[in-house]
Amino acid sequence: MNRFLTVDRALRSAAPHALLDVAGSALAQHYAASSVDLLMADYSRKALQPVTPIPRSARPLPLHSTPQGRAFGAQEPCTAADSAGGTVAVHVPVSVHGDRLGVLSVTLPGTSCPPEVAEELTEIAQVLGREILVADRSCDLFLLARRKERLTLAAEMQWQLLPGGSCAQREYAMGAQLEPAYSIHGDAFDWAVSADRLSLTVVNGMGEGTDASLLTTLGVNALRNARRAGVPIADQAALADQAVYAQHRGALHLSALLLCVDLASGRMQVVDAGSPRMLRMRRGAVVETVDFEAQLPLGMFEETVYLAQEFHVEPGDRLVIVSDGVYTVADAGGEPYGDTALARAIATTRLLPAAEVPSAVLRELTSYRGAPELDDDALVVCLDWFGRSPAATGPAG
User: Fold this and answer.
1) Which Pfam families match (predicted)?
2) How far apart are CA 200 and CA 233, in angstroms?
């Protein structure tokens, strides 16, 4: 059995809380690693947090301007040689189907890393990523490593509701980011993919604190329940509308934008039930707001009927969806951010991968506002559409 398979087997059989220790021991034994560190991207996507026992003593690293950050951003191995010590640090991304979790840093003897070793370490990091997602179901170690500070209760509820912060398949790549990351309370996103279609939802629950989180949790799970029952997208909105209305009798409602994309053709069905807004960048240059027929938010009235609209995406299109906490933010003079500034920010980030666009737009938003913290939730979702070639028969592994 070769060394990669041996490490792979060790990781798959490790107890969730001992996963990093097992990885360190296996890499030391089979790759002569002198140190092994795992760093997780924090909720704000601004730092890489070392995974250590509580209380934590290791300091977080900036996501930018470090070798570890470059490995995370480029999703490629990054090496840093220490000639005096005769070692080389190899930093490889820990990702699962485009969901960027963090970075595995391995220190090896020598001053360079052979390409085949870097490739094996990259594959080991992918195995580790899958095991981390499994471990999260029964262990807090890796969840705690994603936070630089304590979450509010509302934010705790919201982050547990969300899928990963990024996702990629053959036909598309997506990224999403919520701010303020440690005190969010109303905005959320959800996505799911099958062999035939991609479903994407962006929601904004009215209110503040745990009340808003409870409302959003109800709405997102009602939409999931309807989607998993196999009903069309318009009926998904109607069933979620009934669930929210039955609970709050119109006193609270939920804005939502529902998208369902046919992976083979790029044909999209859309239900616009509130405030989330979508912009499209075509051919890497032209940014325009996409206007849909506005329908009532979910839960406002009893038995609202929703209709799906048709839309089409072309290979190379970039769709950016934002909550009202983005385009209504005002600068010091009271001028709203608006579609013009948002379009400019999207155009500026045209060379970034989809996973990095939301954070870049939110940094621009913070600079525009002139203050470090936002008054309202701000959510940005970016979808890059590549399309499916005629020879493609299913999603990438």
Assistant:
1) SpoIIE (PF07228)
2) 11
